[in-house]
Amino acid sequence: MEWSSLSSILFVVIAIVGTVIALRQRKKSGPQKQEEFYQHFKGLGLQVSLAGRDEQKEKRDIGRGTGQKSEGLITLENSNINLVNVISVATQYGVNYFLDYLVESPKLVDKKQGGKVRLKKKKEGLFAGKVTGAEWKGTSPLAQRLNLDYRLEDMLLVNPFKGSIDIIPEPKWRYTRIRTRYFLPGRNLLNALDLIARDIRLEYGQRRSMDEEAKDLQRNR
What we know:
By secondary structure, the protein is α+β, with helices and mostly antiparallel strands. It is 42% helix and 26% strand. The protein contains six helices and eight strands; from the N terminus they run H-E-H-E-E-E-E-E-H-H-E-E-H-H. The protein has helices at 3-43, 53-59, 141-147, 150-158, 187-204, 210-220; strands spanning 48-50, 68-76, 83-91, 94-104, 117-123, 131-137, 166-170, 175-181. It has an eight-stranded antiparallel β-sheet, sandwiched between helices. A hairpin with a 2-residue loop joins strand 3 and strand 4 (94-104). Helix 3 packs across helix 5. The longest helix is centred in the first third of the chain and has 41 residues, at 3-43. The N and C termini lie far apart (70 Å).
């Protein structure tokens, strides 16, 4: 047997073994991630609850790709964000976790209506420089709306975080996903995510009432 064939077989075996280990790890640590995030939200003073089984069954497949699994949903009250879906992705290299902040988008009915939007950080220098700006890349009107939201840009610059933010419309479910890496956001960064959700509502759905927004403003002071 040639060395190239032997190397290919060995690589496949290692990949399978790595994936099996990752799946076992996910089975144990996945529910812990949901509980950790839920307790973090409660610690911030937010009105949250774990979504019931019926709601989980209905919403857990939103935007799921190959190898992804929902570890559970958290419902937010008095927020532009409706649900947070804790997502795990098992690979041969281990388990990665993401967060999908879900925003109801009743006017989102066609894929052509809303394409993917991604946050691109502007930095000084070529190598890991200071973040000096934020630009939303995408062809949909939502990207333009976000780029004109200068308050949002200021909030993102003041509250740096690793990774990017992807906004993925899901016309089938009438939801829009705001995806980030798994991390526990501080209150100020969470306010920035809520502002993104507000812009999504203005583009694809219905703005919350003035009374609701006034209560949020008072609570966030």
